[in-house]
Every structure is written in structure tokens, then in C-alpha cells.
Specification:
This protein has 192 residues and is α+β, with helices and mostly antiparallel strands. The protein folds into two domains: 41 residues; 143 residues, Immunoglobulin-like (Sandwich), CATH 2.60.40. It has three helices and twelve strands, in the order ααβββαβββββββββ. The strands form three sheets. The chain has a five-stranded antiparallel beta sheet, with no helix packed on it. Strands 1, 2, 7 and 8 form a four-stranded antiparallel beta sheet that branches.
Length: 192
């Protein structure tokens, strides 16, 4: 954004390119769009801190209609293996993980059949993107007080996901069972 502002100011001061007109306005919009696209791409390309070579990514879903709930945009998660051995996981470990909203962790309550089959991620590979369905009515704050539901107010919110580990599903490497990883932070807007 700063580069776009500098270009606009330089154009204003020097008069470069003649009168702004429609072509000038279009050029300014293209510069601003490119700057905004690079910010979104950088956020979506981020990964959480690797633990034993395994890292978790939280991002906006490629298909925006796939999974949007409770005002949140559609989200997806992926695991990356930067370690030397094969990583095995059950998808529930990351799609039913804990969700951090603005610094407060929430856990999902869910029921149904469990579990999908284990998936392997070879060294230097990434899992397929999996939809993360967040249903605020099923998300409860993790703390010592009374259970409180996730109440997403309109505005911008910082989100992260943490994998869960149980006897039924987990992430494991050749060295560790029940690995827990935390994703990158993304900022999303919730409508009003």
C-alpha cells in the first residue's frame, strides 16, 4: 500500500502522465489491487511454527461457498511435513481442533461417527486442503469458568487453529505420537 501511495503522490507532484482521467484512475486502481493481493497472498502462504518438522496452515478456502458458517468466511487447513520421516494423521485432528479467536481458545463439541482413515504425508510434502467448518453454536471457551459459547461480533477477528490429540485421532511422526501443532494467524472480517 505504501508503494501505491508513493506512486500516486509522485504523479500528483510531477504531473507525469498528463491529466489523471479514466486511464490514470484505472492505473491507480491496478496498483492498489496488486498491493492488496500481495497482502492476502502473504497471509494465505503463512504456516504455523513447525514441531518436529510438521506445521499447520489456516487459510481462506479456495471455494468461498464451501463451508461458511456463522458469519465467518469459508476456511481450510493443511499439514506440511518438512521432516525426514512420514507423518500420519487422521483429518479430525485438524478439522475438529481448537479455534483461537482474538486470543481466546474455543473447543468444538461434536458428535457422529468417527473416524476417517489415517493419511500419510511424505517428507517435503503437504496434505490436501481440508474444509474447517466452524459452527459458533458448537464452540465453547476453554477456561476455568462456566462454558461460554463463541459469540462472533461483526468486525475483524484474528484466528488460529490448534490440532487436538486423543486416543481416537492424532498426528504422529516416527518420533512422537500425539503431536500438537498451532497454525498461522489470519485476520478475517465478520459481517453485521
Amino acid at each position: 500500500m505504501t508503494n501505491a501511495r508513493h506512486a500516486i503522490e509522485r504523479r500528483r507532484r510531477t504531473g507525469a502522465g498528463g491529466p489523471p482521467g479514466i486511464a490514470g484512475a484505472a492505473a491507480v486502481l491496478l496498483v492498489l489491487a496488486a498491493a492488496l493481493a500481495s497482502r492476502v497472498t502473504a497471509q494465505d502462504a503463512a504456516w504455523g511454527t513447525a514441531v518436529e518438522g510438521v506445521s499447520l496452515h489456516l487459510g481462506l478456502a479456495a471455494d468461498p461457498a464451501n463451508g461458511a458458517r456463522g458469519g465467518l468466511p469459508a476456511l481450510e487447513v493443511q499439514l506440511r511435513n518438512e521432516g525426514a520421516g512420514v507423518v500420519t494423521f487422521r483429518p479430525e485432528a485438524i478439522v475438529h481442533g481448537s479455534l483461537e479467536v482474538d486470543g481466546v481458545w474455543y473447543v468444538e463439541t461434536w458428535g457422529g461417527s468417527c473416524c476417517s482413515g489415517p493419511l500419510d504425508i511424505a517428507p517435503s510434502a503437504t496434505s490436501a486442503a481440508l474444509p474447517l467448518l466452524v459452527v459458533p453454536a458448537n464452540m465453547f471457551r476453554i477456561d476455568r469458568g462456566a462454558a461460554r459459547r463463541l459469540d462472533l461480533r461483526p468486525g475483524r477477528h484474528r484466528l488460529r487453529v490448534r490440532s487436538v490429540s486423543s486416543d481416537t485421532f492424532d498426528i504422529h511422526t516416527p518420533l512422537t505420537d500425539r503431536l500438537v501443532v498451532v497454525s498461522n494467524v489470519i485476520v478475517v472480517a465478520v459481517g453485521g
